[in-house]
């Protein structure tokens, strides 16, 4: 339950005035003083102010919902034309860009193709004249990867494409992925074919490059693990027809729950995440008799 | 039938549901994806433009451009955990419109600017996680719990950007009453929305059965 007992009404109303944009000079000084005072933690004031700002923003949307006007085409074009430079400046000069990662990926793929070709021909590097040429190409590929990897160590953008068990809490992992993963997918849970008591919601945060993700649930019913458990499935047609087991989990408390994803196999390009209810310990192949939640990737 | 086959057969239905949801354009913009600009304007251009027109039709163009520059710059601060994209954009729009209104009305620079007070700037990290589903629906239901006068004062202040004196003239109310109605009304809506979230959490606590 929200507790406003510690926030005196006058201060709360001043912060509401700030959110509404109607503070006078004198009131503004009072707010400044309150933030510097030891009476109120700055974090409490910041939280109160942020909540009121958010409420005002939602109300603005509520009032506007039924009365929207289309933006004029020439204004839209102008905004679009200006966007590129602003976005580029905002994202900064960062080696961790899609174009750089694409180039790295193409080098890795070239190395893998050569390795497969060598293995299938039973050729060891340096064994035959034809292998000499291939070996040099492979060496160049490896050298390029090594060079980029050295840079990547400094800039921290070379991410392992394999299952990685994070030691972070789900909350920290989620925040880290949202703030630093360039390929992060965020998609909301929607109802599956099995109706739940109440309304369950939340989202999935997933990064394919790091093979890490976190599921967030709000209102997912508590389960008894001795009777049944929830199991995540990652639908990835790029891999094969069978979805990837994302791990078995329990919901022990009401409200919000964060659960780290534990993909058993490498995920390449997920198109959807699905939750089923299974026997204790989960299953290898689900009959999907009970599928309460589904999150599609746009 | 495998789960993938059955799930994918239903995928088109659920995909249409997902497509009605936000396309997470802000995260794409934050990652430097220029293609997200058109999507952002498709989804939120009407909202921003409508607000700018109501707050000041004379320089609505400038206001809209300024707001979208802020959106491009602030996209990396967006946290889907604490607000929907539309609310985040609405908050940016409000700040810019309030600041422009102050400059236009030559209000003292000593008055708290929405951006200058860093300690109380609406940092996403100051906000608790909330269920952002149906934010607007909840807000409308909570708004209906206020008196008609309070609702009207909030609408004129928040949506139309009318000053207290302007609202006072329109509704024939003392300016002091306008200020109280607006501020207390906003607090009441905030409390109401949070209590709805709390009731939902409380109602779901202890549920141990499935379908």
Radius of gyration of chain B (Å): 20 Å
> Order of helices and strands of chain B, N to C?
HHHHHHHHH
Number of strands of chain B: 0
Main sheet overview of chain B: none
The assigned structural class of chain B equals mainly alpha
Percentage of residues in DSSP E strands of chain A: 15-25%
Unreliable segments of 5+ consecutive residues of chain B? 1-6, 10-22, 109-122, 204-211
- The structure class of chain A reads alpha+beta
How many helical elements of chain B?
A: 9
Output the number of helix runs of chain A. 7
Order of helices and strands of chain A: HHHHHHHEEEEEEEEE
Q: What number is the mean pLDDT of chain A?
A: 75
Quaternary? heterodimer
Q: Please give the share of residues in helix of chain A.
A: 40-55%
Task: Characterize the main sheet of chain A.
Answer: 5 strands, antiparallel
Cα-atom radius of gyration of chain A: 26 Å
Written overview of the protein:
With 298 residues, chain A is of the alpha+beta class. Chain A is 43% helix and 16% strand. In chain A, strands 2-9-8-5-6 form a five-stranded antiparallel sheet, with no helix packed on it. In chain A, a hairpin with an 8-residue loop joins β5 and β6. Chain B has 211 residues and is mostly helical. Chain B has nine helices and no strands. The relative contact order of chain B is 0.08. The N terminus and C terminus of chain B are likely disordered. At the A-B interface, α1, α2, α3, α4 and β1 of A face α1, α2, α3, α4 and α5 of B.
Task: Based on the model shown, name its key terms.
heterodimer; A: 298 residues; alpha+beta; five-stranded antiparallel β-sheet; four-stranded antiparallel β-sheet; 7 helices; disordered N terminus; B: 211 residues; mainly alpha; 9 helices; 0% strand; disordered C terminus
């Amino acid at each position: 339950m929200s507790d406003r007992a510690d926030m005196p009404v006058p201060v709360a109303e001043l912060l509401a005035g700030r959110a509404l944009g109607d503070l006078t000079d004198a009131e503004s000084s009072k707010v400044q003083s309150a933030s510097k005072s030891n009476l109120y933690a700055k974090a409490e004031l910041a939280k109160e102010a942020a909540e009121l700002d958010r409420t005002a923003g939602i109300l603005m949307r509520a009032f506007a919902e039924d009365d929207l006007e289309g933006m004029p085409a020439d204004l839209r074009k102008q905004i679009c034309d200006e966007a590129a430079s602003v976005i580029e400046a905002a994202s900064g000069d960062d080696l961790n860009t899609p174009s750089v990662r694409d180039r790295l990926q193409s080098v890795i793929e070239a190395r893998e193709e050569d390795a497969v070709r060598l293995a299938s021909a039973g050729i060891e590097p340096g064994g035959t004249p034809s292998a000499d040429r291939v070996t040099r190409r492979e060496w160049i590929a490896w050298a390029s990867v090594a060079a980029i990897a050295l840079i990547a160590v400094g800039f921290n953008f070379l991410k392992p494409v394999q299952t990685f068990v994070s030691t972070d809490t789900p909350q920290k992992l989620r925040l880290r992925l949202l703030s630093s993963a360039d390929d992060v997918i965020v998609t909301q849970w929607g109802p599956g074919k099995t109706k739940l008591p109440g309304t369950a919601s939340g989202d999935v945060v997933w990064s394919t490059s790091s093979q890490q993700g976190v599921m967030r649930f709000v209102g997912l019913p508590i389960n008894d693990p001795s009777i049944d458990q929830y199991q995540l499935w990652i639908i990835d047609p790029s891999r094969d027809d069978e979805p990837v087991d994302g791990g078995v989990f329990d919901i022990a408390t009401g409200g919000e729950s964060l659960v780290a994803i534990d993909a058993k196999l490498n995920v390449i390009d997920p198109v959807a995440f699905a939750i089923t209810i299974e026997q204790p310990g989960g299953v290898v192949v689900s009959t999907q008799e009970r599928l309460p939640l589904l999150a599609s990737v746009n | 039938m495998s789960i993938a086959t059955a799930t994918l057969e239903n995928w088109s239905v659920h995909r249409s549901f997902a497509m009605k949801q936000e396309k997470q354009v802000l995260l794409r913009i934050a990652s430097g994806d220029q293609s997200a600009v058109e999507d952002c304007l498709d989804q939120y251009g009407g909202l921003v433009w409508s607000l700018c027109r109501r707050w000041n039709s004379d320089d609505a163009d400038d206001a809209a451009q300024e707001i979208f520059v802020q959106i491009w710059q602030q996209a990396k601060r967006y946290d889907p955990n604490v607000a929907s994209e539309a609310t985040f954009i609405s908050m940016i729009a409000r700040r810019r419109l309030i600041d422009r209104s102050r400059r236009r009305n030559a209000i003292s620079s000593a008055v708290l600017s929405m951006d200058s007070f860093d300690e109380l700037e609406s940092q996403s990290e100051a906000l608790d996680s909330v269920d952002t589903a149906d934010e607007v629906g909840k807000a409308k239901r909570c708004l209906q719990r206020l008196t008609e006068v309070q609702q009207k004062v909030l609408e004129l202040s928040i949506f139309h950007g009318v000053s207290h004196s302007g609202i006072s003239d329109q509704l024939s109310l003392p300016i002091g009453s306008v200020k109280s109605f607006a501020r207390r009304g906003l607090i009441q809506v905030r409390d109401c929305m949070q209590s709805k979230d709390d009731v939902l959490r409380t109602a779901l606590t202890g549920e141990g059965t499935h379908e």
